[in-house]
Design a protein that fits this description.
This protein has 390 residues and is α/β, with parallel strands linked by helices. It is built from twelve helices and 17 strands. The protein is 32% helix and 28% strand. Helix 1 packs parallel to helix 3.
Length: 390
């Protein structure tokens, strides 16, 4: 790398995607001068990232292990006419642990409260107008907006709470849809963290991205009360609006995206769940393995990987169109309820993005949970550009 640069790699954004890339570079190429610039007060913000163990290769599981806050040997789902326990291990990374592990690995190579206001292929400009240079400038500042992709939204508000008495849960409830269906497909997501501590999230698969935090808090507290849980203290709160991909033009997305974008900015997320941890971990390994690190080599690799991933996941976007466009909002839960009657190995492959042709056929075969005419109307990806069909 050219000695005239201040750094070899600058990563703008210390969230999941940027932090994992920095962590892998530090572990595999410690000679590189890597700098992470995070605009917020802490690396990772206030988030919980989760995935199924089967979403990750054994190699990724090995290096990501220090980041895991909680791991469970299975999970549960609850629907109005179907409940099920599955034995797929599930894991979560809490942002405070993420900040600690990544921060310890990087030391003074990570700066918080340092927003990047502009960037070029070889430099970043900070809010105080100082300029830092690097051979590789990576943009990990989250989604960039634009209308090249057609999206639905997974909105949520979560509270980590301490209860007055033990809750009795031994595994997460990934979806509890036995609740009033509000603002689309609504479910509660519950992670047990100690005998008296839970993370409870009220989640909606909604057409709009507006987040009514006060209403979500009331609905979350109502759910807790209905379970017989008395909340003694709210330890922290997190919320978010995650993209759910219905369709779009990935080529135009990249034409409108500047520089070496990663993470959500590179459209790398599971189309159905919105989970970004598996994609971010895989990309971190790939970037760390590039023989030459420049803004252009990172851009070229990530763009090619993003385009290929988008093309491979067309079936998932079809299912999302059925969910969002062919199904009445308060009936969306029926699609997931039917899905969770399928064999566990198929469910695992689906979430891992490895659904084969037989899996795809099995998901669609049988009595559909949406009207056939409505399903046919959204079959083509081009239909995503049109309005709601329900």
């Amino acid at each position: 790398m050219a000695a005239s640069f201040d750094h070899d790699v600058i990563i703008a954004g210390g969230g999941l995607a940027g932090g994992l890339i920095a962590l892998r570079l530090r572990a595999l190429r410690p000679d590189l001068r890597v700098l992470v610039l995070e605009g917020g007060p802490v690396l990772g913000g206030v988030h919980t990232w989760s995935c199924f163990e089967t979403d990750l290769s054994p190699a990724v599981q090995a290096w990501i292990a220090p980041l895991i806050s909680h791991r469970w040997t299975g999970y549960s789902v609850r629907f109005p006419t179907h409940r099920r326990d599955l034995t797929t291990p599930y894991m979560s990374i809490a942002s405070d642990r993420f900040a600690r592990v990544v921060g310890e690995a990087l030391g003074d190579r990570a700066r918080t409260r340092t927003p990047v206001v502009s960037m070029s292929a070889s430099s970043v400009t900070l809010a105080d107008q100082s300029v830092l240079t690097a051979a590789a400038v990576i943009d990990a500042r989250g989604p960039s907006g634009g209308d090249a992709l057609v999206l639905g939204w997974q909105k949520f508000l979560g509270q980590e709470v301490e209860l007055a008495a033990p809750h009795g849960l031994t595994r997460p409830i990934i979806m509890d849809a036995t609740v009033d269906q509000l603002d689309g497909y609504r479910f509660l997501y519950v992670l047990p963290q100690s005998p008296t501590r839970l993370l409870i999230e009220d989640t909606r698969y909604a057409d709009g991205e507006a987040l009514d935090r006060d209403q979500l808090r009331r609905d979350l507290n109502g759910y807790a009360a209905a379970q017989g849980w008395t909340i003694q203290a709210v330890l922290r709160e997190e919320d978010g609006v995650l993209p759910i991909a219905l369709g779009g033009d990935i080529g135009r997305w990249w034409d409108e995206t500047e520089g070496a974008a990663v993470g959500l900015r590179a459209a790398l997320f599971h189309p159905v769940t919105g989970y970004s941890l598996p994609d971010a971990a895989r990309l971190a390994d790939q970037v760390a393995a590039l023989p030459v690190l420049t803004t252009q080599t990172v851009r070229d690799h990530v763009e090619a990987h993003s385009r290929l991933t988008w093309e491979k996941r067309g079936y998932y976007r079809l299912l999302n169109r059925m969910l969002f466009r062919a199904c009445a909002p308060d009936q969306r839960y029926r699609v997931l309820e039917r899905f969770y009657r399928l064999p566990q190995p198929l469910i695992e492959r689906f979430y891992a993005g490895r659904a084969g042709l037989a899996d795809k056929a099995r998901i669609l075969i049988g009595k559909p949970p949406v009207p056939v005419s409505a399903a046919l109307a959204v079959f083509a990806e081009s239909s995503a550009q049109q309005g709601t069909t329900t």
